[in-house]
Write a structure and sequence with these properties.
4-stranded mixed beta sheet, alpha/beta, 3 domains, 13 strands, 505 residues
């Protein structure tokens, strides 16, 4: 349908997402308001930057990289191109950024990779969105490309499996922590590898610093997990993660959905994927995968069961117009999308950056669901923030938009306590950075502790952590002050697990 210039001027602001015009009949209803006197405003005039979340990059931004200067829009927005040209080693990163960055940066990356718990994997989409004029401070580079100069010494209480997932694993690839929910891990690969991955003990290939436990992408290996779920009538909720559900072949995605929907007591399923943030064009060009997801959602709805997609945007810099179109396609086909961010220093830890992300996601009908306090994962100390900062950030975010589009800021209690509202600690010492949490619904006999990064503490606190002989005293003092001295500290129950993992790691 075509509209005259006059018609477009009337309806332009009433478009849905900017490319779905409302009907002419609705336009006429809006014209009825032309003679209506505008009531007195009780709010200050809105500034342009306050509506910046409605703007989406639609330029051929990838052509700023010489290696992609002749790549057409159609080619770049094909998921096959994205897969084919994904950067999986430093040599390829050096080739693709040649002439854009100082060679010393690549040397910095090479040294960083020797320490990093995750391998390098970077889609052309994300690679092209990094500001290569200032890569050190770019929020996308920070997430995916390690640099030696950015590393900080690990807090003495960090570990690879900081959430203690393996202690709650009845069979390989399945975690049963909450009463009615399980986490199913059918594969150990992703479309990109995040430096801060909470599952760096298993995801991606081995690195110089980590020999990994693997989750096999094979249906025969999944049967025990399915049998366990079917045998436990209390399980109503299944999260399918990994790895990344984006990397499942359409037939396997469909098979997982169909098997789980056939289990009578399974009522809710969540497919988890970083993919929409790092390769959104797959949703529009990998028709078989997207149709499989949509069919599972529809089949679930017909059976009175909920199937949704959980994704992982951390920065508004990850979002362009192709993202908006991909999310619109899912929305129009009845797929609910929720977002889970990780709070990362230099990425989204300011009030402005987090509010902008929340508003942009909401505008695309992606519900901001969680913002996680960064897990205490080895090799990521430069990315973590303090509980104090997170609590203040949450106060500033809450109230800027509707409650259902306001994320919960949570700490995934180290050692298996599950999600706790970040401000729900039973005790928090801002000097030592020790916060004490309880999780009665998971285990009412245990305490769980989160430790702030040492460099975020006042000088007094930093000096205390320099003396290893007082570490246990710091922890015991925090427990005493919490008033829960009768409960068991989680990590005392973890010694056997770490002993088991020691030969692997």
């Amino acid at each position: 349908m075509h509209y005259s210039k006059e018609e477009i001027s009337v309806i332009d602001e009433a478009r849905v997402f900017g490319d779905l015009p409302i009907s002419i009949s609705n336009k006429n209803k809006l014209e009825d308001l032309n003679d209506e006197a505008i009531p007195n405003h009780i709010k200050d005039a809105v500034q342009h930057d306050e509506l910046e979340h409605r703007e989406f990059i639609d330029t051929e931004f990838w052509k700023e990289l010489p290696v992609f200067k002749n790549v057409s829009r159609e080619e770049f927005y094909d998921f096959k191109f994205q897969n084919k040209f994904t950067v999986r080693n430093i040599a390829k990163l050096e080739e693709y950024t040649e002439g854009l960055i100082d060679p010393s940066f690549i040397e910095n990356v090479k040294r960083g990779m020797e320490k990093a718990p995750m391998n390098l994997s970077l889609s052309p989409y994300i690679l092209s969105l990094i500001n290569w004029e200032d890569p050190y401070n770019d929020p996308l580079r920070i997430q995916f490309v390690p640099i030696d100069s950015g590393f900080k010494p690990d807090h003495p209480k960090l570990s690879l499996d900081s959430l203690g997932e393996q202690q709650d694993s009845p069979v390989d690839g399945l975690v049963h922590r909450y009463f009615d929910k399980v986490l199913f891990l059918p594969l150990d690969v992703c479309s990109v590898y995040c430096r801060f991955c909470t599952r760096s003990y298993a995801i991606g290939g081995n690195t110089d610093s980590v020999d990994k436990k693997r989750f096999k992408n094979a249906p025969d290996k999944w049967k025990k997990a399915f049998a366990y779920i079917a045998s436990r009538p209390e399980i109503e909720d299944v999260v399918i993660s990994g790895g990344d559900a984006y990397m499942l072949a359409p037939s396997r995605l469909r098979m997982i959905g169909e098997v789980l929907l056939d289990i009578p007591h399974v009522r809710r399923m969540r497919f988890a994927s970083k993919g929409p943030a790092v390769m959104p064009m797959k949703i529009l060009t990998d028709n078989a995968w997207t149709e499989a997801l949509i069919d599972i959602v529809k089949s679930g709805r017909e059976r009175g069961k909920e199937v949704v997609l959980h994704t992982h945007f951390n920065s508004a810099n990850e979002i362009t117009d192709i993202t908006r179109k991909a999310m619109l396609h899912l929305f129009q086909n009845g797929v609910t999308v929720r977002n889970q961010s990780v709070l990362i220093k230099g990425v989204n830890d300011t009030i402005d950056s987090m509010i902008h992300l929340v508003r942009k996601l909401s505008y695309m009908n992606v519900q901001p669901y969680y913002v996680y306090q960064h897990d205490m994962v080895t090799g990521t100390e430069d990315m973590r923030t303090s509980v104090r900062q997170t609590v203040e950030l949450e106060k500033s975010v809450r109230g800027v938009t509707a409650g259902f589009n306001t994320p919960l800021f949570v700490t995934d209690a180290p050692g298996g306590g599950g999600k706790r509202d970040v401000h729900s600690f039973d005790y928090y010492d801002k000097v030592t950075g020790i916060s004490i949490y309880r999780s009665p619904s998971v285990d009412d006999s245990k305490l769980y502790i989160y430790f702030d990064p040492i460099d975020t503490l006042p000088i007094e606190g930093q000096k205390l952590w320099e003396d290893e002989s007082v570490h246990d005293d710091l922890i015991q003092n925090a427990i005493n002050n919490s008033g829960f001295t009768s409960l068991t500290l989680y990590y005392k129950c973890m010694y056997w697990i770490m002993s088991y993992l020691a030969p692997t790691f």
